[in-house]
TrEMBL record:
Designated name of the protein: Hut operon positive regulatory protein
Superkingdom classification of source: Bacteria
Subunit and partners: Homohexamer.
One MF annotation (Gene Ontology) recorded for this entry: mRNA binding
Family the entry assigns: Belongs to the HutP family.
Keyword Transcription belongs to the record: yes
Species, as recorded: Fictibacillus marinisediminis
GO BP, sorted A to Z: L-histidine metabolic process; positive regulation of gene expression
The entry's keywords: Activator, Histidine metabolism, RNA-binding, Transcription, Transcription regulation
InterPro entries in UniProt: Regulatory_HutP (IPR015111), Regulatory_HutP_bacillales (IPR023552), Regulatory_HutP_sf (IPR036482)
A Pfam family per the record: HutP
Stated role: Antiterminator that binds to cis-acting regulatory sequences on the mRNA in the presence of histidine, thereby suppressing transcription termination and activating the hut operon for histidine utilization.
Taxonomic lineage: Bacteria, Bacillati, Bacillota, Bacilli, Bacillales
Length: 144
């Protein structure tokens, strides 16, 4: 039950969100993926934007609860990284401007381990005043 070295789903998602040229590596593996951008003072809008992109680009099937549920947990884990464990934005006068990458595939050597989904976030967080933000990054991985 080991991860395949060339199929580190989290690493690939992080590289992809930082540099879209890594999309080709994800594509070579035959994995589902998409990217997008979101900016908001509300965490629910960040979650909604990522879920919408995943459904629209057929990374997940929105009719299957376990797929939406797995994506949700990956998003929340990634948001914990961006927000340093406090998934609050507007209520504490913070805003984010993020790029995201969603990657779905089979990172284990054994096919029985099934599919996993990774959400990588990169961008800025800070006070809702232009120029008063700083970089932030987050990663969430969950099994489907």
């Amino acid at each position: 039950m080991s991860l395949a070295e060339q199929k580190l789903i989290g690493k690939l998602a992080m590289l992809y969100v930082l540099d879209e040229s890594h999309q080709s590596k994800v594509g070579e593996l035959g994995w589902l993926h998409c990217t997008g951008k979101v900016g908001s003072m509300e965490s629910n809008k960040v979650v909604a934007a990522i879920e919408t992109a995943a459904k629209k680009n057929q990374v997940i099937n929105g009719e299957v609860y376990r797929e939406t549920h797995a994506l949700y947990h990956a998003i929340m884990e990634a948001l914990h990284g961006v927000t340093r464990g406090q998934v609050q934005l507007g209520t504490v006068l913070r805003t984010v401007g993020l790029r995201f990458a969603i990657v779905r595939g089979q990172p284990y050597e054994q096919p029985e381990e099934g599919e996993w989904i990774a959400v990588a976030l990169y961008g800025t967080i800070g006070a809702p005043v232009k120029g008063l933000e700083h970089e932030a990054i987050g990663l969430g991985i969950n099994h489907i």
